[in-house]
Design goal:
alpha/beta; eight-stranded mixed sheet; 8 helices; 10 strands; globular; transferase; tRNA (guanine-N(7)-)-methyltransferase; S-adenosyl-L-methionine; tRNA processing
Amino acid sequence: MSDVTTAEFNEEGKYLRKVRSFVLREGRLTKGQAQAMEQQWPIMGLDYTPEAIDLVEVFGREADTVLEIGFGMGASLVEMAKASPELNFIGIEVHKPGVGACLAEAAEAGVTNLRVYHHDAIEVLENSIAEGSLSRVQLFFPDPWHKKRHHKRRIVQAPFAELIRSKLKVGGVFHLATDWENYSEHMLEVMTAAPGYKNQSVTGDVVERPDHRPLTKFEARGHRLGHGVWDLMFERV
């Protein structure tokens, strides 16, 4: 689980920027994480730029690109990249130990189709990702801000849905997952109202966890305890 961003929204859904637009959470790195940052960042790290990156140049090939927002410690992202070598993967995370852990794991797995940002997700999406360039955007277990008065801090709001849509190719998919039922209802409401999307669920609500999203340890434990996880997949039309 990851704090994706510190952007907030006012009641009309406009972004409220803090004076500093976001906080990079440094945290204490383990020796292995620090070493991975030093050795792997030059290979897999993407430094934030205010202009759009050229995906063919970054990955050295033409391929569909999947972007994950807030990958936590990166275990499932690395697993996905390893399982789908034909796809490009980009991960964004503000928490430095998570970035270090992800780089270490990717290096160990011999993954070459993954690049990562240590930066605010909104800023990367707004400026560094070209319009219509992504085939999938993933937002798994974002901070649920479960207190009612904090709901406006939830990242899934109308302007965010619109931002994601602009970055997806037609036919590209925004895949969301949460283990908070109340947040899944909020996500469904926002995404159903968002123009230019079609829900991939035949029942008009959630979908079964697709094969491409690995079951996390945390989630497997939740299943045993009878906790639910809700997946939503919306296609850009």
